[in-house]
Amino acid sequence: MKEFLKRKNIVISAKRYGIDALGAMAQGLFCSLLIGTILNTIGSQFHIGFLTAQILKINDVGYTIGGLCSFMSGSAMAVAIGYALQAPPMVLFSLVTVGYACNVLGGAGGPLAVLFVAIIAAEFGKAVSKETKVDILVTPIVTILVGIGAAWVIAPPIGKAASAFGTLIMRATVLQPFLMGILVSVLVGIALTLPISSAAICSVLGLTGLAGGAAVAGCCAQMVGFAVMSFKENRWGGLVSQGIGTSMLQMPNIVKNPRIWIPPTLASAVTGPIATCLFKLEMNGAPINSGMGTCGFCGQLGVWTGWLDPSAKALENGAAAIVPGAMDWAGLILISFVLPAVLSYVFCEVCRKTGWIKEGDLTLPQ
9: burial class by Cβ within 10 Å (0-12, 13-18, 19+)? Predict the structure, then answer.
């Protein structure tokens, strides 16, 4: 069996499934749901005709370009996961159907269901791939039947569980905005820097509202925090790559000296409750935006989108469109950029003076 799994490149490990597959799923979400949301927002706010026009109808429902992107998010996630698992072409292409069906069956927990089901379908497809003379029939049939069967069994319960847990977090944040503001901000921010996907986690849990705002605060604290506090070592290139790219670049340095994680994490513990208690910052765009921070400014786009045109998930949770005022804009700017930069820099300087952070500890690997 070990020889067979090795020959088929089936690696059963936490890294393969919990890091590689989850990270790829987030990219699939980004290239479908998130891009679709951005295109719809740009089209509606700037009155761009070809972005607001319904280019086709499916079951009497009209879809714009952005709407089609969102419509295919399940397929995009499944294919991305298959790619991360190094699935052969016939398996990869078969996952299009599996991902779409699973995302629909999973409802609010569609992304999480797709993660599990796509892994199962891909590994079974890889197991039978090129084992018969009629591979062109066997591989797609096995991949699709196993995938659809798994989706039929586990997607609905996963969807209900993920939806319930996400709702619990959001309600708890409304009832206890200070404590939950700290908890959500710190945990989601840490997830963003770890080699897992905070965006996928937020999408799976459907985080919107105050909880989504706290998640945005935590992610911004990590990205902007690391960008600013490491400016001495990494200069402008590091500022851009971490500030609007990803703080995950610091993971090799965190492994060497975990104390460099203290400043941005403390900053997130401060900005989280400020976001929930003082500014009442809500992220009512697509839930994936809650875990994006300043990556491509997607977190800020999500907040702005939520003000003007709340996502379906946010509407389901009771959100409504608003006209943002000066306090809303001030909160978004301070929570996203100003406070993370100032707080992380101050906390970092304290750590440098105590000897916890030394010169070169924050230098990005070349």
Answer: middle
DSSP string, 258-316: GGGGHHHHHHHHHHHHIIIIIS---B-S-GGGGGTTTGGGHHHHHHHHHHHS--HHHHH
> Using an 8 Å Cβ cutoff, are 20 and 139 in contact?
no
- The span from the CA of 118 to the CA of 72, in Å, is 15
The Cα 94–Cα 163 span in angstroms is 28
pLDDT tens digit string along 317-334?
Answer: 889 999 999 999 999 999
Structure tokens of 185? 């901000």
36-45, 80-89, 177-186, 357-366: the lowest-pLDDT one: 36-45
The string of pLDDT tens digits covering residues 235-252 is 999 999 899 888 888 988
Pairwise CA distance, residues 75 & 93, whole Å: 10
Q: Which residue has the tokens 């999500």?
A: 302
User: Looking at residue 348, what is its pLDDT?
Assistant: 96
Q: Token pair 């996907």 is at which residue?
A: 197
Q: Is the pLDDT of residue 41 over 80?
A: no
User: Which residues, including other chains, have CB under 8 Å from residue 315's CB and lie 6 or more apart?
Assistant: none
Output the DSSP codes for 80-147: HHHHHTT--HHHHHHHHHHHHHHHHHHGGGHHHHHHHHHHHHHHHHHHHTTSSTTHHHHHHHHHHHHH
The burial of 306, by beta-carbon neighbours within 10 Å (0-12 exposed, 13-18 middle, 19 or more buried), is given as buried
Quote the pTM value.
Answer: 0.72
Dist. CA 67–CA 46, nearest whole Å: 17
Q: Which residue has the tokens 């401060």?
A: 270
Domain boundaries, the chain: 2-156, 176-353
The full DSSP string for 7-29 is HTT---SHIIIIIIIHHHHHHHH
